[in-house]
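Standup notes
- DV: blocked on the single-chain target, sequence here:
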Amino acid sequence: MTAIDSQEHQELLSRYAERYAEIASLAGGLAHEIRNPLSTISMNLDLLVEDLASSLEARDRRMLDKLHTVQSECRHLEEILDAFLQFARVGTLELQPVNLNDLVTSFLEFYRPQADETGIEISPHLEPGLPEVGGDDAVLRQMLMNLCRNATEAMPEGGRLEIQTAVDDAHVALVVIDNGHGIDAAAREKMFETFFSTRPSGSGLGLPTVRKIAQAHHGTITCESEPGQGTKFTIRLPIDTPRQP
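- DV (later): unblocked, structure below
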């Protein structure tokens, strides 16, 4: 690539980044505007449920059942908005030195009680002396959370969740393995597409957000899975990722 071609490429990337930031800002603003009236609706539903909770009238009990259904749908919408905001916010990150072993250890201290409640056994295997990578600590934690939630949903009756770190050539690998129900070939082809979900209540943004986070860190994500054989996600992040001063 010539110097002129390289300059044009950088200008194109810069325009793309500016355009993406503008779209992400608009999308995030729209999501917040939706959240405000949704919060008001949810609050008033809670008050109505509280008013009817002690009534024994058949008509009130039927109304209460309907209100519970609407409450459930409001919570689903709030979850979709949260997932969308996560997706929209991932763009240009401030990358600083991050040790994935420290990040995983800290995350598991937080996540282990949730895993215990659902019968998930967590098995970490972290390679000692792991090199640092350029990363955004909070965003990487969100990536790990999305992967662990995805694994937990694949093991509704409990199971084993293994988290590994290792050096892989010029990369550090973060591996999340579950022994859940697995993913068929058709779903694997679409799993990183926005709003694709195999669950009726899913937002379809969890795994696309994970991929977007990996790409924002100049990394990659791969998936190995078969129905009934569990699933393995591998995130590879370059050790020499450019970092902010």
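- Follow-up: The chain has a mean pLDDT of 83.
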